[in-house]
Amino acid sequence: MFSEIGAKMLERMRYLEEKDRIDRVDGTARLERLRQVPPETGRFLAILASNCPEGEFAEIGTSAGYSAMWISLAAKERGIKLKTYELLEEKIRLAKETFASAGIENYVELIEGNALEHIGDLGPAAFCFLDTEKELYLPCWDILSGKIVPHGIFAADNAINHYETVKPMIEKARNDIRFDCTVVPVGHGVLVCRRK
User: Could you report the per-residue pLDDT of 99-114, keeping only the tens digit for each?
Assistant: First the structure.
């Protein structure tokens, strides 16, 4: 999977990694920053997704499409499309640019608008990744947790570095008897919940 990353995707990954690094130190306003996962989290997500059962793949919070590139590697193996949701116009523009330049348009479907208005339409899901505004974590869990198929994965970023903000969702997930959950200390911390 990783050895098959083409030069164009690798170039776009490097570009977004550098843009994200600069955004974090140059005073770029919070909503304008990419705030994407680090490369080790991207690899982790791709491996998680590639080992999921049959079902849809979803990502809430596309940003510029960095994590979607990683997840698309698993989608490509299955011949399916990752559905990724983004609200902000500038990030939608960047994501479209990313998907075209990385050559993954056949494996990613960008859904524009408020994810909470669209994720209810998602079918049975094998893999969901949540990396959006932290106050949306709990409502997204409430909608998506019922869509995860047996042995499917729900993953949420920022489970360590924004723990206090996302704690209500983490606690609800941990207390949900349908799931086994743990926080993996990769990147900013990823909550991983496996449907029983």
Answer: 999 999 999 999 999 9
138, 171 in Cβ contact below 8 A? Answer: no
Laid out side by side, the sheet with 108-112 consists of 108-112, 82-86, 56-60, 125-130, 148-157, 190-195, 179-184
State how far the Cα of 85 lies from the Cα of 116, in Å rounded to an integer.
Answer: 9
The predicted model scores a pTM of: 0.97
Distance CA 177, CA 155 (A): 16
Per-residue pLDDT tens over the stretch 41-93: 999 999 999 999 999 999 999 999 999 999 999 999 999 999 999 999 999 99
Which amino acid is residue 64, in one-letter code?
Answer: A
Question: Which domains, and CATH codes, for the chain?
Answer: 2-195 (3.40.50.150)
The 8 Å CB, 24+ separation contacts for 178-186 are: 178/145, 179/145, 179/148, 179/154, 183/159, 184/44, 185/160, 186/40, 186/41, 186/44
Q: Alpha-carbon distance 115 to 189, whole Å?
A: 22
Reading the block at residue 16, the tokens are 């977004």
